[in-house]
Fold each of these.
Amino acid sequence: MERELFELNTQDPTVKPLATSFNSTEDHLNPDISDESVLGFRVGNLRFLLAANIFCEIVDQNKVSPLPNVQPWFSGVLNLRGDIVPIIDLHILLADGSTPLKNRHLLAIDKGKKTVAFWIDGYPQMLSPHFTSASAPDDLPDVLRQAITDYSRQDQHLWLTLSLDKLFKALSVHTVQDKD
């Protein structure tokens, strides 16, 4: 079975792939990634974790096309190498009271038709797998609580392990309830 590998289009300077853009089964391409490493990113006061073997990249924000009559947290879509990618603003969705940074980035997660992008604060970072178990915070919105699979602490920070499948399911229910 032939594997599809991502190749950076050097003609497009707006696409900035992360150093962690390759699957862990392709570690020979990036030896700094271990099977246990995780990718962390921040949105407001919350910190999220994704498995390091998920393809991620930073995408220039100028490509966002807003859509009419959608939820406020749905920023619009962008065309990423021929795939229409939905963009979610967790600041608005969670209404956590934090002010989005002026220097936000779009983090595109996964490849092809499964790609989704989130506005994040700062750049994502690779984290070592040395976490301690933690409990869920009381003030976590229900839509997000449904999408978190684990709560961990590292360096005094609470990290939430995010399941994209569970997040989309929670968002679809959340959206339907808002229309009722």
Amino acid sequence: MRKGEVCSYNEKWALLFTEEAEKLNLILRNEIVCIYHIGSTSFPGLKAKPIIDIMAVVKVINIVDKYNIKMQEIGYEPKGENGIFGRRYFQKGGDHRTHHVHINQIGSYEIKRHLAFRDYLRL
């Protein structure tokens, strides 16, 4: 059973995002438009579950499926849409998750929704 843990802000979270974004760029380099640090670990000073949430924006979402094996090689479990139409979702760390990657096609409403929430909390 997974336990939810909330921790004080850790300055390493920004570095962990950057390191993982570089790995994703290497794998999806021809497909990626941009990558964002989203979720509670992206807010300096905020207590959070220590899971780095990443949102990648790609040109064509269906092409992401051909990278599942490469994602597995760096520790991610492909979850397909995982309940959100048009998204590809990956988890890293099993029951002790360290990262979530949400991949959406450019123009998706989910991109706007995630960024609006993140930016609102940063005000």
Amino acid sequence: MSTHAARLVAPDGCRSLPTPHQRRTRNGAAMPTGPSPQSANGHLDSLRFRQVLGRFATGVVAITALDPQDGRPCGLAANSFTSVSLNPPLVAFCVAHTSTSWPRVRGAKVLTVNVLAEDQQAVCAQMATRGGDKFAGLKWTGSPGGNPVLEGALAWLDCAVEAEHAAGDHMIVVARVLQLDTHAEGGPLVFFRGGYGSFNGGFVDTP
């Protein structure tokens, strides 16, 4: 994969990483490349923390549901998705406490994880926005649980929330997989060093 970075729209359930030109201190000096500096209270510098963790490549998912209050589709983007257990079948993802979309998704009995494909950067950006109709112009079909499966997604998993654990400024959500299947073909949408990328095409510039 290329190391060319593209700026990410900060999603509700996804870490927001700075692009290389943002990795500077407030006075404009370049961020240090050595061991992480610490503040007076012993905490790691948050910008340096995000910079270093940004070197761990992740996939990107859209977590969708139907709002039980009005029946409308709702969702958020996340790059913190991971498998947890085979028996029972469990997955997990992290959601920021400040998320305005998670309460709507959480209200549904079943939520659906959509694994996004490499050509779905625009879909991810749309799902990451706050407010408005996140599904405007998007095509989707219903999963067995009734939730949106986005056209072009590589796979989907219908899940039920098993447990939630507060962890700093995020909530770790553990969910039991009820049903799942592959969907479209193609490569995955990858998030690395503040940018979107793929295995074949390198990183993609955002407008």
